[in-house]
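<purpose> Linking amino acid order to shape
<body> The protein record starts here
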Amino acid sequence: MQPTGMLRTLASAVISAVGVLWFAAGATAATEPRVIELTQVPCQFLESEGGIDRGYKSRSIKDCEAINGKSGKQRVMEAKPLQLKPGKYLFRVTNKNVPYELGFWLRGASVAGRVTLPSVSGGGLMPGKTQDYEIALKPGEYVYSCPLNTTPDYRLVVK
């Protein structure tokens, strides 16, 4: 084989290998879940309320029940729903300055007993800690909250 033919063959092999690697990297990136970061402070999720920390103080679930009993519905009405496309997501939730264990619960916004959309939940989110909750979201309307921090039910729309 002539040296120029060997160079062409080598160049072709390199281009093919780069193409395969590029395709494989793209395929891996496409299957990775998208990360949604949420921060819990006493009685609320910061990002869900436009980043506004309302400065609530809470030593127990009862404090948040009282606070959100008064203002939760109004705050949710004023908040923009989180809008996502269908797909895999990783909700990364942080307990910032809440002095007790928290959790996270994302579920379909439907009538109890007739939930047809995916759901994810869990507890164990101690002060200063971050925990991940993975879910594949289908089109529909969801709500998310913390039943241990008694936050309002924030809205999430997948379309």
Notes: The chain has a mean pLDDT of 84.
